[in-house]
Specification:
The protein is α/β, with parallel strands linked by helices. 38% of the residues lie in helices and 19% in strands. The chain has one domain (2-264): Alpha/Beta hydrolase fold, catalytic domain (Rossmann fold). Strand 7, helix 4 and strand 8 (164-168) form a beta-alpha-beta unit.
Length: 268
Amino acid sequence: MLRFALLFAVLAYLAIMGFMYVQQRNFQYFPARSGTPPQELGLTGVTEDRVKTPDGETIVLWYSPAQPGKPTVLFFHGNGGEISGRHERFAYLQSQGLGAMFVSYRGYGASTGTISEPGLIIDAVTAYDVLRAKGVAAGQIMLLGESLGTGVAIQLAAQKPVAAVALEAPYTAMVDIAADVYWWLPVRLLMKDQFRSRDHIAEVKAPLLIQHGDADRVVPFAQGRALFAMANEPKQMVVIPGGTHDIISDRDVWAREVAFFLANAKAQ
């Protein structure tokens, strides 16, 4: 009887592990797919470009040029929603005179394709190349990532020259978060999209700003602090007392980023 119970327990565990492996991206990404155009959200002066990636997908980019002498922000959102849900942030950057390009990752909004870490990095590099083709100098490109998007921003900054990088609630690796949540599974062996920011941060040479709430229960504050410790100078970290993951919607957070970007923009 005991042998039967043990066999049942092992088979049940293997079945759960198999299910989690197959369905893992449904637990990691929560895309919205309305693809609402910027004009319907009250934005003006914005173009909605549909761009082919090197691997044949079509991604949507929202773009608004900067006022003379101001930098342009290349923005990477988190794992939920889509860029249409970040229209207030886009409008805020416009109001400060900054240019903005918001990337609708593959599988989000009206962009085609299946979500994956390699795919999101391709999308980021594609958007960067589009900005450069529009005549925006590397010294005027600022990367901004929220939550999941911090890992995208870090990998892009490790590959391409940029003027500055701002991160909201970053992590050492997505797999580090998942391993804590699913401690009873061999997550480090099974997880496909690990977003190991700790493996790339040393390659980021641009000035860095990290903002993180010390009460964040989505991305633990300790991970943001650890990533900061790994980063090159010049760097600064702003700790928001009592701040949760909702700091990504905090106007004070946005304002500090704008000031940071303006301070690090290089003359063309």
